[in-house]
Design a protein that fits this description.
The protein is α+β, with helices and mostly antiparallel strands. The chain has three helices and nine strands. The structure holds magnesium ion. Belongs to the PPase family.
Length: 187
């Protein structure tokens, strides 16, 4: 039986990439959003969980350790070990954190505390720096455990169910504006 903390992630950006791809929620296509302004690269496989909605109007993000990069659009089972609490330009923008469930090199990682500190520092540092040349600030409020991460995931699934029709109609920006007026999802 699948463990509840193993969830499918859709890879958007392979580890090592400086191209920021994302899945378009209306067309389903993988689109180049931008090339990172600085000489930075993603320190893990980066993607999202389908049928979720975070406060930035996008599906919940995931960053996962991997040994060998995959490809945009690939579905990977990730063992969630925690989450990184992030505020991106004033918006709550949490990242789930995990490891490839089907890579035995990570079999001993069952909690984010099992992960070498330097690997976590690299990820934290990446997110703090990757928008610097766009004059945007990202604040990291710290790492939380698997329990909190799964709670966040459940909330994002619920939110998606509430808004899915409107998201498919391309109303993301309107929804975000409504949240802003209500003070929802703001840091
Ligand atoms: Mg996001």
């Amino acid at each position: 039986m699948a463990k509840e903390n193993v969830i499918p992630m859709i890879v958007e950006i392979p580890k090592g990439s400086t191209n920021k791809y994302e899945v378009n929620e209306v067309t389903g296509r993988i689109v180049l959003d931008r090339v990172l302004y600085g000489a930075n690269f993603y320190p893990g496989e980066y993607g999202m969980v389908e049928n979720t909605l975070d406060w930035d109007g996008d599906p919940l993000d995931v960053i996962s350790l991997c040994t060998y990069p995959t490809l945009p659009g690939v579905e990977v089972n990730v063992r969630i070990l925690g989450a990184i609490k992030m505020i991106d330009n004033g918006e709550i923008d949490t990242k789930l954190f995990g490891v490839f469930a089907n890579d035995p090199r990570f079999d001993t990682y069952n909690n984010f505390k099992d992960v070498p500190q330097h690997l976590k520092d690299e990820i934290t540092n990446f997110f703090m720096q990757y928008k610097a040349l766009q004059n945007k600030t990202v604040r990291i409020d710290g790492w939380v455990d698997e329990k909190e991460a799964l709670h966040e995931l459940a909330e994002c699934k619920e939110r998606f169910n509430e808004y899915k029709e409107r998201i498919k109609n391309g109303e993301k920006e309107i929804i975000k504006e409504e949240w802003k007026v209500k003070g929802l999802g703001q840091a």
